[in-house]
C-alpha cells in the first residue's frame, strides 16, 4: 500500500529559468538533436519540447561518456549555463554530466536536425512520426494548439458553453453523398459531417454553445484544400438579430485567437516565419456584389457558389482595397444547401448565409438558421427533402428555438493559411485523405 | 459593401449585474420556462443559459401582452429589479415590456419546468432535446464543461501540448473485436479505440501531450457503465521515472479539476446537489494486494482483472480506511492487454499498469509504456501478436522514444460518479449505445 499525493510533479524544462541561471549548473531531460564532433570536444544540440539548446561536451570534464550517444537518443544532462549570443536562445551549456535514458533502434530516415526537412510532402507524411521531430514541422502544431486555446478562451469569456456531441449518427447534417458509412451493430450509421443538428438543439437550453471536434467529409477528390477528417471549431448563438451578429462574433473571436497566439507562441512564430494578421474591420460583400466584381475582373460569374479562383480574387481585392486578409461573402442563393439556412425576408432568392475567406481560401461557412418549425418544413420541401426524414432534428424546432445562427471554422484551413502552406496536409498532424490511412 | 468590426457583441444575461440593479429596469432575452396565472397578474419564470428568474406580469403595467406567450416561447423582456429573498437568485422582476421572439409549434412532451422530470430514462433519452431544457438535466452538462475546462487549464499549466489525432484509422489501438468498421473509399478502416499510438508518437517531439476527443468501443453489451462513443481525456508524458509519476500527475490533475468546478460551477453544484470530493492523497494497492483483500471479504479472487463488484468493494475499503473517494490499483498481470504496457523489471509476471477507481467505478487506465523497440516487439510476440501488423506504430520506437507513460480518463464515467448517477447515459448529452442512434 502506498499513497499518491500529486504534490511533487516532474517539471518540464523551463527556458526562462535556464536563461536566468548563467553560471549555475542546471539539470534536465531532452532529446539529442544533433552531435558534431570537433577535436577534443563536441557540440551536442539538445531538443526540449519547444526549444533547441547548444551544449558542449569536453572530454574529461563531463561525468558519463558521449560514446553511443547519437541523434535520437533521450538523455538527462547537467550543464553549467553560459551566456552565448550566437547560440540558440542565447545560452550554451558546458556539460558536467550526461546519462542515456533511451536510444533508437535505427537512424532517422529524414534529416531531422536540418532547419527544413527538404523532402517531398509524401515522404514527410509517410514518415510523419519522424518528420514531426523536426523543429519547423512540429512548430505548426504548437501554433495549432494556440489557435484552439485562443478559441476556448474567447468562447468561455463570451459565455458559450462547451458541448460534446456524437459523431456516430443516424443521419448526416449536411446531406449529399460525402458521408462515411459505419457498420453500427448491423444497423446503418454515418460519421457526422458537422455538429449542426446538435448545436441547434443545444441553443434551446444553453443559448450559446461551441464545440471543438472532428468532422468527417467523404470527399473523393484529392485537392490541396481538402482532407477527409478535420477539426471543426463550431459555435452557435441564440437571440441574434441577424447573421451580422454571428459575423461580429467571429471577427472578435479571430482577433482574440490571433492575439492569443501572438502573446504565447512567439518562439513558433519565429521558427515558422508566420505573419499573424492584424484583424481590424473585415469587409463584407454580398454574393451578387462578388459576382459583379469577378465579372469585371474577367472571371465567369457562377450561379450558386464561389469557386477556388473566385476566392483568391476576392481576397486580393480585400487586401488591396481594405488591407484585410479576410473578406466575408453573404447572401448566397437560397436554392443551394444547407436547408437550415434562413431565407432573406427581403429577397427569398437569397439566404442569410455567409462564408469567410482568408488569404484566398474559404475557412468558414455560417449564417442565420431557421428557428420556426413551419418555415423549416417548407424550406426542406422547397429543396426536395422529405421532412419525415428529419423528424428527430425537427423536434428542436417543434418545441421551440430562439432566433439563432452560428458557424464552423476549419482549423486546418485556418492554420494552413496562417502559415502560408500550399497544402492542407501540412496543417494536419496525421492527415486522412483518399489514399492515406497511415500513420 | 459593409464592414464587420466585431467591436459590439451581443451580451449574454449577467446575473451579478442583474442582482446589482435593484430598482432599475433591465432588458434581456430568455426562454419562458413557466407561466402561472393569478387574479390580475401572472408569475412568469424566465430561463436564461444558467439561471431561472421570477418575474411578475401585471395587466396594464407591461407594454406587450402575455397573450399567446407560454412555456417554450423565447422573449425579450424589460423589468424592474426587486430584491426578493424567496425568489430564485434573490431577485424578482416587475415586467415593464415583453416581446415575443419565437414560439414553439407544440407543447413540451415532458414536464420541463418541474424540478425533476420524473420520467423514465428511456423517455428522457427519446426526448433528449426537450429533456435538456430542464434545469436539473442541463446542469450536468455545464458541470461536464467545468471538468473539461479544468483539465485544459491543468494540462496547459503543466506544459502538455494539446494535440488532435485521427479517429479514422487503419488499426485499433486496443485490439480485440470491440471496434467499429468504416467503409473508407472501399478500403477497410476503423474508428479508433483510443489515441494511444498517436499520443506515444507525439511524446517523441512534444514530451507531454494531451487530447480531448471521442473514443469508440463497439461493446455489444448494454450495461449501465458502457456507452459506445465517449469523450476521452487522454495524456501522455515523457521522461518519467516510473508509472508513479503518471499517477501523481493524475492526482494533481483531478484535484485541479475539482477545484476548478468548485470555483466556477456553484450554481450547478447546488442544482445537482453534487458532492465534489476533496482530493488529498489517493491510496494505491497492487492487484495482488487487492485480490487478497477481496478474498478476505468473501469475493472470489479473479486471475487477470477486477470485476464491477471488486471495484465497488475496493472503493468502500478506500473510503473507510482512508476517507478517499478514489483508489489506485497497480501491477496487473502482464499477460493481459494492453501489449504496450511495460512489464515490471522486478517481476515480469506483472506490468506497470494501473487503474483508478472512483466511487465504485474504474474511470482511468494508465501506466508506463514500453519505449524500447526490441522490448516492444518481444512483448507483442509474447501476447500472440505479429509485430509486422504494427509496423507503422513501431516506427516511433524504432526511431526513439523517451521513457514515458500516460492514461485515459473517461469523461462520462467521471461525471456520472461525480453526480452519483446510476446510469452513464445520464452523463452523455446524446448517448450512443447498441440500441440508440437518435437523437
Element layout with pairings:
The structure is a homodimer of 439-residue chains.
Chain A: E1 2-4, H1 15-19, E2 25-37, E3 41-47, E4 52-58, E5 74-83, E6 91-102, H2 121-126, H3 128-131, H4 135-157, E7 161-162, E8 168-169, E9 181-184, E10 187-191, H5 196-206, E11 208-216, E12 229-238, H6 243-264, H7 266-272, E13 282-286, H8 287-296, H9 308-322, E14 326-330, E15 353-358, E16 361-369, H10 373-382, H11 391-398, E17 404-410, H12 411-418
Parallel strand pairs in A: 4-6, 7-11, 13-14
Antiparallel strand pairs in A: 2-3, 2-5, 3-4, 5-6, 8-10, 9-10, 11-12, 12-17, 14-15, 15-16, 16-17
What is the number of helices of chain A?
12
CATH superfamily of the largest domain in chain A, called what? Answer: Bira Bifunctional Protein, Domain 2
CATH fold-level label of the largest domain in chain A:
BirA Bifunctional Protein, domain 2
CATH architecture of the largest domain in chain A: 2-Layer Sandwich
What radius of gyration of chain A results from the CA coordinates? 26 Å
The average pLDDT of chain A is 96
Tell how many strands the DSSP assignment of chain A holds.
17
CATH class of the largest domain in chain A: Alpha Beta
Multimerization state: homodimer
**Integer tally of domains of chain A:** 2
Regions with little confidence, pLDDT below 50 for 5+ residues of chain A: none
Structural class assignment of chain A: alpha+beta
- Largest interface in this structure: A-B, 131 and 131 residues
Report the biggest beta sheet of chain A as strand number plus sense, adding barrel if it closes: 8 strands, mixed
Which sequence of strands runs across the widest sheet of chain A? 7-11-12-17-16-15-14-13
Percent in strands of chain A: 25-35%
Secondary-structure element string of chain A: EHEEEEEHHHEEEEHEEHHEHHEEEHHEH
Q: What separation lies between the terminal Cα atoms of chain A?
A: 40 Å
Shape label of chain A? elongated
- Residue share in helix of chain A: 25-40%
Amino acid at each position: 500500500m502506498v499513497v499518491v499525493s500529486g504534490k511533487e510533479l516532474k517539471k518540464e524544462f523551463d527556458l526562462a529559468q535556464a536563461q536566468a541561471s548563467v553560471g549555475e549548473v542546471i539539470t534536465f531531460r531532452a532529446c539529442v538533436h544533433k552531435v558534431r564532433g570537433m577535436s577534443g570536444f563536441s557540440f551536442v544540440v539538445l531538443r526540449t519540447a519547444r526549444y533547441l539548446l547548444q551544449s558542449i561536451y569536453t572530454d574529461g570534464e563531463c561525468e558519463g561518456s558521449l560514446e553511443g550517444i547519437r541523434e535520437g537518443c533521450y538523455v538527462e544532462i547537467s550543464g553549467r549555463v553560459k551566456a552565448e549570443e550566437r547560440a540558440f536562445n542565447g545560452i550554451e551549456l558546458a556539460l558536467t554530466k550526461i546519462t542515456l535514458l533511451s536510444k533508437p533502434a535505427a537512424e532517422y530516415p529524414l534529416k531531422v536536425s536540418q532547419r527544413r526537412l527538404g523532402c517531398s510532402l509524401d515522404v514527410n507524411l509517410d514518415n510523419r512520426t519522424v518528420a514531426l521531430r523536426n523543429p519547423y514541422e512540429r512548430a505548426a502544431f504548437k501554433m495549432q494548439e494556440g489557435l484552439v486555446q485562443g478559441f476556448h478562451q474567447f468562447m468561455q469569456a463570451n459565455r458559450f458553453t462547451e458541448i460534446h456531441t456524437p459523431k456516430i449518427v443516424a443521419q448526416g447534417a449536411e446531406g449529399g453523398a460525402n458521408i462515411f458509412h459505419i457498420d453500427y451493430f448491423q444497423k446503418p450509421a454515418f460519421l457526422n459531417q458537422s455538429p449542426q443538428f446538435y448545436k441547434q438543439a443545444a441553443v434551446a437550453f444553453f443559448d450559446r454553445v461551441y464545440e471543438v471536434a472532428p468532422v468527417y467529409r467523404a470527399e473523393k477528390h484529392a485537392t490541396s484544400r481538402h482532407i477527409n477528417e478535420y477539426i471543426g471549431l463550431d459555435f452557435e448563438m441564440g437571440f441574434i438579430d441577424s447573421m451580422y451578429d454571428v459575423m461580429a462574433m467571429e471577427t472578435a473571436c479571430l482577433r482574440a485567437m490571433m492575439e492569443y497566439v501572438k502573446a504565447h507562441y512567439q518562439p513558433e512564430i519565429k521558427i515558422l516565419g508566420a505573419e499573424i494578421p492584424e484583424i481590424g474591420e473585415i469587409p463584407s460583400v454580398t454574393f451578387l456584389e462578388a459576382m459583379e466584381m469577378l465579372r469585371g475582373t474577367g472571371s465567369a460569374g457562377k450561379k450558386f457558389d464561389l469557386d477556388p479562383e473566385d476566392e483568391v480574387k476576392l481576397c486580393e481585392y480585400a487586401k488591396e482595397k481594405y488591407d484585410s486578409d479576410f473578406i466575408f461573402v453573404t447572401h448566397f442563393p437560397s436554392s443551394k444547401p444547407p436547408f437550415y439556412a434562413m431565407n432573406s425576408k427581403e429577397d427569398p432568392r437569397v439566404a442569410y448565409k455567409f462564408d469567410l475567406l482568408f488569404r484566398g481560401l474559404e475557412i468558414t461557412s455560417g449564417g442565420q438558421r431557421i428557428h420556426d418549425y413551419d418555415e423549416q418544413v417548407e424550406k426542406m420541401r422547397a429543396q426536395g427533402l422529405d421532412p419525415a426524414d428529419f423528424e428527430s432534428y425537427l423536434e428542436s424546432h417543434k418545441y421551440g428555438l430562439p432566433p439563432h445562427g452560428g458557424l464552423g471554422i476549419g482549423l486546418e484551413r485556418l492554420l494552413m493559411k496562417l502559415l502560408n502552406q500550399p497544402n492542407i496536409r501540412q496543417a494536419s498532424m496525421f492527415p486522412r485523405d483518399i489514399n492515406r490511412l497511415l500513420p
